[in-house]
């Protein structure tokens, strides 16, 4: 079992074009008013209710965008982290004291009976791997919008996720405001750190004892850095159809970049350090010898991993100041 990879179930693949969201008989006053909309996902089109009152999130991180748009879900998916109400600190206050039902976990999957018990009038799961069978079962309970067709499962970028959920909730204008705000933060941080521009970055993790891995271009953690001006080296560009490719100890020599980032969330930092210390070839990498390596394992690392309109500002505030000195800034 992978330490920090398989438990999260990422299967990010190649990027797609912008999802086309067809709105039918809809109006958006920017404050939540809507007469209903038709939203497309991987399995077709769904007519969503106007002003839904009981929203259930079956996506791994969808509750962040739902909360950011001013809607408190009645049910959420518990991805990881043992957080109160399955919601991390950057989003928890927006629950306003509500305690949504836990309708699934990364280990159990979506629990249909718990979704039904939450009596939803809208089900959202854009950052997910919902199957056709699951979609059919969920749609029998309430109108359901899951992962878009133009991206791999678990592959929707945070910008499109926010827009899709905004359309479903009748809050497209608000969603666009949120996307613009966070995108501006990326722009501002990149401008403040010109040393990031054009530098290569590799984001890796410990997959299993003696086995490491590299995240691909569409993984949220890699996107975080490329949105700041970093670029992907050949070893990363070659990863397609998945978000993570294992590499052997011998292949660590391929893990050379201007910046080497190790993701060790979930308490796996000590295991990672022990494995690296017992891997002689790793010590010979130029990035290691020159101190261009960082291990990310705290709440900021998780904010980067969640990669939502709510979590990213926290990651942007905390991670760039740590990596800038490694690049001579």
Automatic annotation (TrEMBL):
InterPro entries linked to this entry: ABC_transptr_periplasmic_BD, Bact_iron-sidero_bind, TAT_signal
Protein name (database record): Iron-siderophore ABC transporter substrate-binding protein
Protein keywords: Signal, Transport
Domain Fe/B12 periplasmic-binding: 54-327
Metal-binding among keywords: no
Top-level taxon in the UniProt lineage: Bacteria
Pfam families named in the record: Peripla_BP_2
Family classification: Belongs to the bacterial solute-binding protein 8 family.
First and last residue of the signal peptide: 1-20
Compartmental location: Cell envelope
Organism: Rhodococcus gannanensis
CDD domains reported in the protein's UniProt record: FhuD
SUPFAM superfamilies the UniProt entry points to: Helical backbone' metal receptor
Keyword Ribonucleoprotein found: no
